[in-house]
Amino acid sequence: VDKNKDEIIDEALLTVMRAPKSYTKEDIVEISCHGGATSLRSVLTLATGLGARLAEPGEFTKRAFLNGRIDLAQSEAVLDIIQAKTDAFLKVSTNQLKGDLSMELERIREQLMSIYIEIEAIVNFPEDEIDAGRETGNFASIQKKIDGARQRFERLLKTGERGRILKDGIKIVLCGRSNVGKSS
Questions:
Q1: In 10 A of CB 113, how many CB atoms?
Q2: Residue 89 to residues 80, 81, 101, 114, 168, Cα–Cα distance (Å)
Q3: CA 74 to CA 119: how far, in whole Å?
Q4: Exposure string over 62-95, b if 16+ CB within 10 A, otherwise e
Q5: How many Å apart are CA 44 and CA 22, to the nearest integer?
Q6: At a CB cut-off of 8 Å and minimum separation 6, what does 93 contact?
Q7: What confidence tens digit (pLDDT) does each residue in 123-132 have?
Q8: Is 0.90 topped by the overall pTM?
């Protein structure tokens, strides 16, 4: 209802989403109306006149990132989902939004922190029985852990190459003489 004219503009549904369970972890109100251009414009004019403001493009994802609801990889996945041109890339992007990439990066980080702590202990407490010498096997154990982390990074990099192909496709050229079946 427009209070100035005291007439009905449209029937609308207001959805209230309370923090911290909303996408942005903030209180949000969403207005759903029938969506015809004239009624939509009238509802928006009325709402903004009462103090509401329109969200900027990408603002909800930006706020979700700033409020710690999603990380940077997940926020990039949102854009990838919106721009996905194939089902395969949509699936990859959805998995990234779920946090698959972030969880793997966290596991690698934890593995590297464990190695760092072990090396710190060897350096800072040489008088203890912690020894990085080859004769005790600790050096080989540390090297094996470092190699494991490196291999995990390499696997991630390979999936990145595949993801680029799924996202951007592959450009190919078919050439040959006329009427040899190139179009088939």
A1: 10
A2: 8, 8, 14, 34, 9
A3: 33
A4: ebbbeeebbbebbbbbbebeeebeeeebbebbee
A5: 22
A6: 77, 80, 81, 84
A7: 888 777 655 5
A8: no
